[in-house]
Structure formats: structure tokens, C-alpha cells
Amino acid sequence: xxxDRSGDDGALMRAVVMRAFGDPGVLEIEEVPDPSPQAxxxxxxxxxxxxSRTRDVAARSGRHPFSRQITLPxxxxxxFAGVVEAVGDGVDPALVxxxxxxxxxxxxxxxxxxxxxxxxxxxxxxxxxxxxxxxxAELTRxxxxxxxxxxxxxEMSEAAALAATGPIALTQLRVAAVTAGSxxxxxxxxxxxxxxxxxxxxxxxxxxxxxxxxxxxxxxxxGITVLDSGREDLTQAIWEAAGGDGxxxxxxxxxxxxVFDRYFPALMNGARIVISGAIGSPDLPTLRVPAAxxxxxxxxxIGVRTANARTTKDFWDLVRDGFRLPPGLVHxxxxxxxxxxxxxxxxxxxVGHTVLxxxxxxx
Length: 363
Description:
By secondary structure, the protein is of the alpha/beta class. The protein has helices spanning 53-60, 112-115, 156-175, 192-203, 234-241, 257-263, 291-296, 309-320, 338-347, and strands at 12-18, 27-33, 41-50, 80-87, 99-102, 105-106, 126-127, 139-143, 147-149, 183-186, 207-212, 225-228, 249-251, 272-275, 300-303, 330-334, 353-357. The strands form four sheets. Strands 3, 4, 5, 8, 9, 16 and 17 form a seven-stranded mixed sheet that branches. It folds into two domains: 12-150 and 327-357, Quinone Oxidoreductase, Chain A, domain 1 (Alpha-Beta Complex); 170-303, NAD(P)-binding Rossmann-like Domain (Rossmann fold, 3-Layer(aba) Sandwich), CATH 3.40.50.720. It starts with 11 loop residues before the first strand and ends in a 6-residue tail after the last strand. 24% of the residues lie in helices and 23% in strands.
């Protein structure tokens, strides 16, 4: 879609602009024209935006499949929180001034998948920060259907973090059939999505085992069993941590082949392995799936691209009912720090959620 159309008054805003693909140094602060909301859209003053390993960091490299969908110059940034500044034609003006969370994905609502409630399979999926300029900026425009009015009492940085990971986490847990009493295995448990998965799964009454190479970095507030994914006896350790029967559900958003090879034998018959977002590196992983055990033991391997409207609504209902992240899982950086944050994600030193604080004056 390319650059946003500027407003009528010629006003300028700050944004992190990418004029070439490459290392984090291609991200530079510039002044660019304010965007204007089109029909069915809202213009939102961005307070905080989640830095995404896949949509932002990997796409910036130019070697990721998302990169091919970007038109330069470009502004990255998808899921965010802010305040509605203006609305386009066909949008209720009462939305102006509301504190909102904005989701990065917009579906067409008309294809077979959308009409069947499987919006994550939409053939016309559009992502803010990929197909249109995103939210590493003071202002951005989004489809009004992507907005969710925030309850009082939630801080903007946490709202941005939850917008980025909450609905897809709840979707993954539902696809994996996680309920009270489930034994859930979550890979990469220091990551943003994995931490929300752990908190949500525990809320559902499941017992959670998390895998990571950085055990000491796991937030203590998660209250889960944590195993070093590099240990030689990982298969046995997973089996024992899950009560001796093995996990019945796996949420694997890393898809590291060597880890998959070792957790697969520990799974309970009938287990479901659900994968989303496991493409956060330009070097896309390839899993060695053993076909015979897959069908003999009735194990399912399921890919989920994004959340559907029903699950997204259910998640924000949980937030309105008081669902929050444990302290210490959301880390703020200034907009100007975008290159350094991208570098930290690449090096694997980022833990939990990192958000860019864009407009400090937005409550």
C-alpha cells in the first residue's frame, strides 16, 4: 500500500522510517506528513508499540517472506495502544478520545474462511506495519474493526504488549484444547508470546512446563516448571515434569529442530502441537516430523496464523475482567531506541515484551 496519505494541513510527525532493508541501522527517526483516516478507519495517536520478532525484526532484514510484501520507504510496527485522534467516514465520532488497543491484522470478512469464523485463514489478510505504514510513529491509521476500547486502570505499554500476544495466545491454547488439568509444554518461554501463553494456560487451570536456554532469565511470577532446552536428558525431563505421562499439548513458537526431536518422544498419545510465529528468523526452520509415530500415536501438528474475531473479543473480555501480566514482563524503551531494541531481539537478550514508548503524554 506504500506511504500513508498526508493530512490537509501539512503537519508533520516523528516516525522511524526504513528506506532500505538491512541491519538495525536502517531504522532512522524522520519527520513525515501526518496520515489521514480513510473511510472505515481511525487515526490513532500512538502511546506504545510492541516490537515484534517476526513482523518487525525479521521483516526488516529483507530476507523474510514478509519483506517481499513491503514497499519502501516504510514504517514498521503493528500491535499498539493509543488514543483515537480522528475518524474517517462511516465511523462513530464518539470513538474520538477513547483509549484503545489496536491489532495489527485486518481480515476481509467476506471470504469463505472469514464467513466460517476462521479469519486466521483469510486470503486477503492485511497487516499494519507490513502492507501499510505502521505504528513506529506518533500517528497511524487503522481499520476501526481492529480497535478495542481499553478498560480503566491498564497502562498503555501493557495494553500494547497484550494486543500483540493475548488474542493469538488464547487462540493457540484453544486449538490445542487446553483446559483445567492439561499438561502443556511451551518452548522459548522467555519470549513475549510464550510468557502470555504461560500466564493464560495457568489461569485455565493447566500445568505448564517451559523450555528455554536462558533459565535464569525466566520471570519468577510465571509460576511454572522451567527446563533448560539444551540438556541432554530433555526427553526424560519433560516426561517427568508432566507427571509421568508426558504433555498433552505443545505450543511451539520457536520450532527449533533439535528441540522438537527431543520433546516429540515425550508426548502423550493424542497430543496436539500448535505453532504460530515460528518464522521470527530469516532462516526459517524445518522440522523433521516422524510420520509413523505421528499417526500411530494420533499426534496432531497444527499451524495457526492469527486469532479470529470471537477469540479476540473473548481475550479483551478477560482483560476487562482483570487479566494482567505479572510485574517485570513489559520493558519500555524510547522510540529512538528502535535500532537497539531490534539488535537485542536478534542477539536473544530481550526478555518478555519490549515496547517503544512513542507519546509519553498519552495516558
